[in-house]
């Protein structure tokens, strides 16, 4: 008998004979703040910086905000960047990336997290290996809570998706919070400027 | 092997350190309480999560088959391991087939349970733990002392010394940011060199055939996404039915450790990257046996959030290592005896049965009831009469009749006044070690009552 069969057989023998059905979906109470405001608040709590950008201001923003970033990979059309396809397959070039600009598919207000799926990522390691991460979030794409995000996702055909809620961090040395563990040292959420 | 009580005594010998440990862990607990109090739907989610897990355990075979079918359709290779050894063999075989000798691993209590590192190192494979806390204890050759913060028992000066020795950091520099950056630089090299990334799994989603990994540091995702082979080691109880269930579980798993509302990274892996391979190893290693124990199966609902550790007064004051087990704290004390009652029979006694653990558990495991149940089982197995039992048995005749109880009480009240305390409270008496004798009351309660009832009537 294979281990697979052994395990499944043992489960059938040992599992409780009466099964409850899955609970009904929770009727969540409304949060105290509207989604956009809640998202802003939670992103700040997560250690993100929040900025607003008008369509023509991108280049000035990058120049001012990231003066020491030389290797910039941009996956948003408004900014050109100076690293391209050749970076993707090469670990050394990847490791030298200073800044990644990318659009989020979704943002979750309650956790301040953003969701990026495979379709936006030419290679999966990008949002983890860069020193600084800038994520473009459109207010229309902010959902209230995590369960609303999953309501948007199709279970079949998932490939890779990541929820990111801030720069990487650790508190493994005497519980002192250090921002910038193995992943990015900073994360910035950019949203359209409100006129 | 030393028992929990003995190890706890060793730990408490350094009083300052024990206080520091207690306060550190208590801070975790306070942060958890604050966060949970700010989530109005917390109890609704707890109940739902508990129901979902019950449902999964009662249908585990079907969900595992569904998970396997969907993962396979996604292009993932699914393996089954009946025990730790088979798990280790499978990992080794995958590495061998791909001619891999350097591996990075992110935090995984399961590979810790299976002793994977030792197995691979004995076969000339370099395994580097990449979670900062895990790396610290790997360099120090210690066991994790906490589910989420494996190096919580160490002070910054100790980490500084360790890093000076291994990573050549400045002598005496114990600044956490400095040390973390040094580890970052050191581990970056390892990430770039590694040919395989191994991770644990927080949730396996049956309907989509993918695994979800919850971290803060970014190490798991760096490791997996730079390597040509990714291996996810998963206990069979980690299954949840639907993607949407994550909407609850991902919110329940983080507050317990240190009050985080969300993890920084919740990564969902379903398909391998082009040109690479992805493996999931489903591990039993005693879990099906625990499933068969009606009183204890519910412990398999655990999502390893660490809330019960942080809240436990015994854990806080005895330290993770006193449990001499991979999984410490209250949850370890109900899981480990199921694996080996001989070796871990002392753990269910490492508790005050105050029930705080059950109150904070996000999946509503009746932890303290199970601790109590284990005690009953363990004591039933002990044939010889313990001094406690003997004492209770011998006092039985006195308790049976009111008159004899009265006589015995009179006798004891006299005795308490006459005997020198030293005879009870000396160093060698187990009873007297942490107890004092009461002052003898003037009269029995019955006598007192008679007297005062009479007073009442007079009024
Ligand atoms: S038993 Fe409950 S509280 Fe303890 S680690 Fe597991 S899920 Fe968390």
Key descriptive features of the protein:
heterodimer, A: 195 residues, Rossmann fold, 6 helices, 11 strands, globular, B: 459 residues, alpha/beta, four-stranded mixed beta sheet, 54% helix
Describe the fold and architecture.
- The complex is a heterodimer of chains A (195) and B (459).
- Chain A has a single domain, classed as Rossmann fold (3-Layer(aba) Sandwich).
- The model of chain A has no long low-confidence stretch (mean pLDDT 95).
- Chain A is an alpha/beta fold and 195 residues long.
- Chain A has six helices and eleven strands.
- The radius of gyration of chain A is 21 Å and the shape is globular.
- Chain A starts with a helix and ends with a strand.
- With 459 residues, chain B is of the alpha/beta class.
- Among the domains of chain B are: 68-285, 3-Layer(aba) Sandwich (Rossmann fold); 404-458, no CATH class.
- Helices cover 54% and strands 10% of the residues of chain B.
- Chain B contains 24 helices and ten strands.
- Chain B has helices at residues 4-13, 15-37, 42-58, 60-73, 84-97, 109-114, 116-121, 132-140, 156-167, 176-193, 219-226, 246-253, 255-258, 287-291, 307-311, 313-318, 329-339, 341-344, 356-360, 367-381, 387-400, 402-418, 430-433, 445-458; strands at residues 77-81, 102-105, 126-129, 196-200, 203-205, 210-215, 229-235, 239-240, 265-269, 277-283.
- In chain B, the strands form two sheets. Chain B has a six-stranded parallel β-sheet with strand order 1-10-7-4-2-3, with helices on both faces.
- Chain B is elongated.
- The model of chain B has no long low-confidence stretch (mean pLDDT 94).
- β8 (160-164) of chain A pairs antiparallel with β9 of chain B, so a sheet runs across the interface.
- The site of iron/sulfur cluster has 15 residues of chain B, from α15.
